[in-house]
UniProtKB/TrEMBL annotation:
SUPFAM superfamilies: NAP-like. It comes from Zopfia rhizophila CBS 207.26. This is Nap family protein. GO terms for cellular component: nucleus. Coiled coil: none annotated.
């Protein structure tokens, strides 16, 4: 095959870029149609699982490793005792300025000893950046959790993340576009960075996920809209066969992740929204199938409610263990504590 000159290589590259955008359009249409088709089924499922005690606690007990690795024994106990409802929704599905990839994850809790909130909702917006080599992905605002006295399972991380986010918003309103250079000087910035540094060797609670902002940096709706408009203009030029000059990006030495309390937050959210939510019945059935497995190779030590360093079994807590009804001699298999 004869070698192509640079102009031909560039032309093929532009063709691939146009094709890539067409694949992206198809993917968005699939999300819209899937959402429409599944909506009545999710409504029907909600009516059924409302009659099943601890349905969602058992679903999270059987969560895939990518999620389970972030659920500590103390988190499992919260889910088992007070998680009542769970819902994922595509809140920008019909918004022409939004994205079908955006979604919210909503947990409904009963009265409990940990926090005052009955609902904790985490929203994720799919946004595009003007810099960062065209970065695009999920961003979120920290959620304020009303922890009861002495019950903050995140050791202050969610409160500190929320405080910093609010301080950044106030700074942006008053700085006339020069806010980013001043963010690292905020006392809330230094306070959160210090908390994260001190917590690196500890097992972080799943509830710290509610403090997640971005795997890169926060992107506003306005910036994302500008980036989308610029991308659409470049696409039209490519379709007309015109040469597109990529705008140079400024290198930044700023460490945006220095104050990110849950760096894998977007990955965790995606698995929950795109796997656990649509496949909840499968995970629930797995919990019951596990009750029928042989226990000879599993650890069956008694669960000590006051031993925070022990192991948690949600099925045992909610009365779904294999022998919970018939025998007190052989408790159900334990969920291993994360290290």
């Amino acid at each position: 095959m004869a070698a192509q000159n640079p102009e031909e290589v560039l032309a093929r590259f532009e063709e691939l870029s146009v094709l890539e955008s067409e694949f992206d359009d198809v993917e968005l249409e699939i999300i819209r149609k899937s959402n429409a088709l599944n909506a009545p089924l999710y409504k029907k499922r909600a009516a059924v699982v409302a009659k099943i005690p601890h349905f969602w606690a058992l679903v999270f007990e059987q969560s895939p490793p990518e999620v389970d690795n972030f659920i500590q024994p103390s988190d499992s106990k919260v889910f088992a005792e007070c998680l009542e409802t769970f819902e994922v929704s595509r809140f920008e599905i019909d918004d022409p300025k939004g994205s079908p990839r955006s979604f919210s994850i909503k947990f409904g809790f009963g009265d409990n000893e940990y926090f005052e909130d009955r609902v904790l909702e985490k929203k994720f917006w799919f946004r595009k950046a003007l810099d960062g080599d065209g970065w695009q992905g999920l961003v979120s605002e920290p959620v304020k959790i009303s922890w009861k006295k002495g019950k903050d399972m995140t050791s202050g991380l969610t409160d500190a993340a929320y405080d910093l986010y609010q301080a950044k918003k106030n700074l942006a309103d008053a700085a006339n576009g020069d806010a980013k250079a001043k963010e690292s000087s905020l006392p809330e910035y230094r306070a959160l960075a210090k908390k994260i540094e001190l917590s690196e060797e500890a097992s972080i609670s799943f509830f710290a996920w509610f403090g997640f902002v971005s795997s890169w940096r926060w992107i506003s709706a306005e910036e994302s809209e500008q980036a989308s408009k610029a991308e659409a203009e470049r696409l039209e030029k490519r379709k007309r066969g015109e040469k597109v000059e990529e705008e140079p990006t400024e290198d930044s030495n700023e460490d945006f992740q220095e104050t990110e309390v849950f760096p894998q937050g977007d990955e965790l959210a995606t698995i929950i929204a795109e796997d656990m939510w649509p496949s909840a019945i499968k995970y629930f059935k797995h919990a019951h199938e596990a009750d029928d497995e042989e226990l000879s190779d599993l650890e069956v030590e008694d669960y000590d409610e006051d031993d925070s360093d022990g192991e948690i079994d949600i099925r045992g807590l909610v009365g779904k263990g294999r022998n919970s009804k018939d025998s007190s001699e052989s408790p159900p298999p334990k969920k291993q504590r994360k290290t």
